[in-house]
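Need a sequence for this fold. Nothing fancy.
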């Protein structure tokens, strides 16, 4: 069924009896050409592009819980492509371009809102670094604009620009950045992949990888064994646990990252604002809540909830720059498990085991990467060659020294 305004009107007039499930709930088949482990945004996007671009339809996505229950439905919804390094910027710009046409392609309202993102500058050295980054972005075809304090004050009059511990000395804006309704991305990809024949198997936890003579030939699951030509692992915060089934240790630590939503307010925040000096970022949802976050919880964990010291730290960071935040009540908070790679950049690569592929290490920045990650992983799984935008995301770079240390705009696992 295609979704459209006409359809909404028709259903409204006929008692909403015509809506069907957005995707099927099939029984697992004994074998598939390609199995994707993990029904998060990246896994579902991979399955969708495998079917839509590469014509691979004997594909299943195995999800231990429910679609949208992982980080894809837990993040703070920010998309952007404001990276510095050659290994990263073309990939994230490709992703932003895919976001721009995604709703039409999937026929799904994911509430893609290019309301802009602003990174605040607090020192002359930071301005130099941001100018360099803005130039790198523009050389790769992304948009970037350096804003003065006066320009920022005009758009965000309530920011404390003068007397804060870190006075605001300008900002780097990416006007094409913004927010996307996170769980709608999972639902949109799931529905579109299902329509192309992909089996989405929920409540199907992978409990083992079948490896025979150095080749991965299938998986053990809570719904029985399934054979596969290729197996793509795509489980974000659970990467280390799943790859341990293949005897592999990854250059990844799992930490909790928390998100917070205030009570609904009238529109006060037109775009996304990030405050790097205090590690705080905020946007306003369409329902009016201020959606914000900050640092990860410092200890390793596989729990999808965090602890109070970080709540205090994040709110302090917000208050330092937005004194008005202290008058809003916190409505909800939750946590997700971050797959923190040791250089802050992701991995999309084959493994030393034939037929076993790995996608992970997204740290706290993988939501914006969802379309490009799925596209690049599908390319790798279908062709056995890396996608041109993802050639740097090699698993062996930690052994060979070809790290992609983004620092400043990427993630900084070394700080935790
Ligand atoms: C609070 C928070 C804020 C964030 N903010 C942003 C942001 O603003 N912008 C941004 O770009 N990124 C952000 N991120 C990061 C982003 O959400 C993640 O990097 C990204 O969602 C990870 O990819 P995914 O969607 O595939 O992960 P997930 O949705 O976590 O998918 C992985 C799936 O694998 C499943 N799984 C695990 N083990 C197994 C198994 N054994 N068998 C079967 N299935 C299994 C899990 O149940 C899960 O559904 C944030 C994350 C959090 C938690």
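Here you go.
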């Amino acid at each position: 069924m295609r979704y459209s305004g006409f359809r909404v009107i028709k259903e409204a007039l006929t008692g909403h009896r015509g809506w069907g499930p957005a995707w099927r709930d099939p029984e697992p088949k004994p074998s598939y050409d390609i199995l994707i482990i993990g029904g998060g945004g990246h896994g579902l996007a991979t399955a969708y592009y495998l079917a839509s671009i590469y014509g691979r339809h004997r594909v299943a996505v195995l999800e231990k819980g429910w679609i949208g229950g992982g980080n894809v439905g837990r993040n703070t919804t920010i998309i952007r492509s404001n990276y510095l390094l050659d290994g990263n910027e073309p990939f994230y710009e490709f992703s932003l371009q895919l976001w721009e046409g995604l709703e039409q392609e999937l026929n799904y309202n994911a509430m893609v809102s290019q309301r802009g993102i602003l990174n605040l500058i607090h020192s002359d050295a930071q301005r130099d670094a941001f100018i360099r980054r803005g130039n790198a972005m523009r050389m790769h075809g992304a948009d970037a604009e350096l804003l003065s304090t006066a320009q920022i004050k005009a758009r965000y009059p309530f920011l404390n620009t003068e007397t804060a511990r870190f006075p605001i000395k300008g900002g780097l804006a990416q006007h094409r950045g913004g927010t996307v309704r996170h769980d709608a991305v999972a639902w949109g990809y799931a529905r579109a992949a299902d329509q192309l024949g992909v089996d989405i198997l929920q409540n199907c936890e992978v409990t083992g990888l079948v490896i025979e003579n150095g080749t991965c030939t299938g998986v053990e699951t809570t719904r029985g064994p399934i054979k596969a030509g290729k197996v793509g692992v795509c489980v974000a915060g659970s990467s280390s646990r799943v790859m341990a089934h293949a005897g592999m240790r990854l250059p990844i630590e799992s930490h909790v990252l928390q998100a917070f939503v205030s009570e609904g307010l009238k529109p006060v925040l037109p775009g996304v604002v990030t405050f790097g000096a205090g590690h705080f970022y905020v946007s306003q949802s369409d329902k009016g809540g201020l959606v914000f976050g900050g640092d990860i919880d410092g200890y390793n964990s596989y729990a999808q909830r965090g602890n109070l010291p970080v709540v205090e730290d994040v709110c302090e960071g917000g208050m330092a720059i937005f004194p008005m935040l202290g008058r809003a009540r916190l409505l909800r908070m939750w946590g997700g498990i971050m797959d923190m790679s040791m250089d802050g950049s992701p991995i999309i690569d084959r493994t030393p085991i034939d037929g076993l592929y790995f996608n992970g290490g997204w740290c706290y920045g993988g939501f914006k990467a969802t379309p490009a990650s799925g596209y690049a992983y599908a390319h790798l799984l279908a062709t056995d060659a890396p996608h041109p935008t993802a050639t740097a995301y090699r698993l062996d770079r930690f052994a060979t020294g070809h790290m992609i240390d983004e620092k400043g705009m990427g993630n900084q696992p070394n700080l935790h």
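For context: Residues 37-43, 62-65, 69-72, 74-78, 205-206, 234-238, 242, 257-259, 293, 336, 362, 364-368 surround flavin-adenine dinucleotide (CB under 6 Å).
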